[in-house]
């Protein structure tokens, strides 16, 4: 009789832990099933390989969770990041759009501070620089960072040469 009583207690305790494990691992199982359902639909060769990789990773995570070997600290961090991201997105969605502001109150777009643009030169020298500077055609819309770097270097070279010529002209 005592043996049966002990056996019932052991069975009860193991079934509770199994039930808790199933509940904790349910999101991993859901993700695995979702990927498997995507695999049943039509897809290209590249997508098929991607789905197979994702399925393998999802299956491994689910299996580690079932065995109680999955680290939960990583999951908590992920959830916190998601909550922060959701809060940030909610605050962005609450911001009025430029279009809605201009319709409701046209004066709302008036700015109190002025816009300041810093130039290399000032006054007459700036105008002389603008007249002197010849921007290459490929620098009007640079198509690569290499061209962009060339444009910056060319402008700096022309500025240095202009500065030397301007100083000799004024003295």
Q: How is the topology of this model organized?
A:
Blueprint: H1 2-40, H2 45-67, H3 72-94, H4 98-104, H5 123-132, H6 145-170
Helix pairs in contact: 1-2
Rg calculated over all Cα atoms: 33 Å
Straight-line N-to-C gap: 115 Å
* Number of domain units: 2
Q: Could you say which overall geometry the principal axes of the C-alpha atoms support?
A: elongated
Q: What's the story with the biggest beta sheet?
A: none
Q: Tell me how many strands there are.
A: 0
Considering the chains and any ligands shown, give keywords for the structure.
single chain; 171 residues; mainly alpha; 2 domains; 6 helices; elongated; DUF3012 domain-containing protein; signal
Describe the overall structure:
This protein is mostly helical. The chain folds into 2 domains: 2-101, no CATH class; 123-170. 75% of the residues lie in helices and 0% in strands. It contains 6 helices and no strands. The protein has helices at 2-40, 45-67, 72-94, 98-104, 123-132, 145-170. Helix 1 (2-40) runs antiparallel to helix 2 (45-67). The radius of gyration is 33 Å and the shape is elongated. It starts with a helix and ends with a helix. The model has no long low-confidence stretch (mean pLDDT 77). Keywords: Signal. Residues 1-20 form the signal peptide. This is DUF3012 domain-containing protein.
